[in-house]
Amino acid sequence: MDYAASLLSFLPGGRRSPGIAQLVAQVEKYLPAAQVERIQEAYELAAEAHKGQKRLTGEPYITHPVAVAGILADLHLDGQTICAALLHDVIEDTPTAKDEIRERFGAEVAEIVDGVSKLDKVQFKSRKEAQAESFRKMILAMVRDIRVIMVKLADRTHNMRTLGAMPPPKRRRIALETLDIYAPIANRLGIHSIKLELEDLGFRSLYPQRYKVIERELKRARGNQKEFLPKIVAAIEKALADADLPGKVDSREKHLYSIYQKMRRKGVSLSEVIDVYGVRVVVGSVDACYRTLGIVHSAYKPMPGRFKDYIAIPRINGYQSLHTTLFGPNGVPLEVQIRTEDMHRLAENGIAAHWQYKSGEDVGTSQHERAREWLKGLMQMQEGGNPEEFFESVKVDLFPDKVYVFTPKGDILRLPRGSTCVDFAYAVHSEVGRRCVAAKIDRRLVPLRTELRNGQTVEIITAKGATPNPAWANFVVTAKARASIRGYLKTMKRSEAVDLGRRLVNQALAEFKQTLKGTDAATLAAAVRDLGAKDADDLFEKVGLGERLAPLVARHLLPADRARAAGAGPAAPLAIAGTEGLVVSYARCCFPIPYDPIIAFLSAGRGVVIHRATCGNLAGWHKQPDKWLPVAWQKDTQRTFSSELKVEVQNRPGVLAGVASGIAATETNIGHLAVVEHDAGSAVITLELQVRDRTQLAKVIRALRAMPEVLSVERTTA
Ligand code: MN
Hints:
single chain, 718 residues, alpha+beta, Hypothetical protein af1432, Beta Polymerase, domain 2, 5-stranded mixed β-sheet, 19 strands, elongated, binds manganese (II) ion
């Protein structure tokens, strides 16, 4: 169905949608018999599935998919696309499952149908410009096969043709969505014919009065032009013939919505836009285009500043042509477009041209490769243009590295691919991020680390007094969330460091039978000043972070007579509970666990690092005796600690599974496991285990030693 006829079918008493016979006649013209047969099968499945259903127009439902297929057949799209068009509402409206389509028509057709059904579920809600842009990108990002978009555009086109049957509010919403979302997408993909039709139909539904006025004026203008336009066309044809340049000259239709947009954009009157002659010249080569330009410029005087060379610098969607405006008969402007046959085809069909059926074509070309081919073509054309802008508008759309998700209010947020619920929370507001405790995706509770997908609605549940979880830092991807969580951890580390520092100073004071409490304020203030700290907390923080030594600080807090006296006795070790947080860490060279004899090393900036007393690394560090301090495990530690075992086993199949299940039997978690091949006969497995204490570790070691395939077991010591 062509464009004019489609407008006709809109009118009361207009003709009915074409039936399957017409579609078959249409595809027979360019598709091989085998594909035509598949299309007929797809029709039969769809007709069966939609049996008894009616459209709001009163017609049988099947007329809709047939019309959608017809629009795509006008673009000469491949057989799979036509089949998918016939089946596009089958998953949505009928019980026919995706599996059945896959079985009968292949995975690609099934994926296209599924993709169209998913797009049907997202609705555009707000009219803000930025929202519209994000929504367009979201639509494109949701699509893996660009043919999904083509079916969707054709679907929308037919729905717009029959929009009159809808109740007015719904009509308005659909028309708005068409103008804001789908026509721009058709434009960006260069599918001109669909873009124009969507615009005119959308405009007509949204602003019926304005549409009528422009339509009436356009008719009047055409009447006026009737006399001169054929003469202009004939004159240009003759000039081309005289120059021995074969070419086709046509008068050009004006489209109502583009007239309206031009009026608004340029702030000009209707007659200024309408009272213009439009002519298009299609010639054989690029060279001929420029020669034609010379010919028309000598036939009519060109208007200064109106020449545009879209051949040298194509538009972003690949559109190429020469545009010029001349002073026509009676001074009426004459707009001329000059292009080659290829450019004309691209100007009409854009990306769809890449899915047009070509006989003898390699079926193996994947849709991704084709999209890439199209992009590559555009890229080459854009050379000298603005590549950044080009990437933003096209590449990002087709090979997206962003996800688009809704807030519960319907606003769209754009986040990097891989973003999680926590990233979303921080993107909404840092305060929401800081307080988030749970998340819902499409109204279902999900873990906070869940990765977001296009089109989802995300809701964040916050709680007063909730704080960020340090584990979030491991999975967030946005800079904002990361910076905010890091900032929080830093603050937390500071307050923990102050606490630890206070305990360390107290411990050092105990050696002199004194406490911090028993130290008078003036002495403390003097010590703070002498040691160059801002205040007492600052001083304790430095001690906690290992930047200042507790015994030295303690000496500053003693009365002069006692400071001179040497230590009154050995210091009681600092108790380690395992819950100290970020300022106490456990060395990964020797993996200390409760009941291991331990010693602590004060590491500047990191705080206290616990080592086993037998750790091999201690030898080298004994040069700094004042950096070591005695520590001991508290009686009840309430967490698990990492410990590492090296297990030598016989190298034979299944041995790893045996070791793992042997450990599982002792109710111990394996955090990490690596196999180092030794030789043909034996292998060494390194196991990182989570244990409460030495008793549990001993149990694991015993269990392992009891296994016949285990040759030896030992704990890692640096
Ligand atoms: Mn549909």
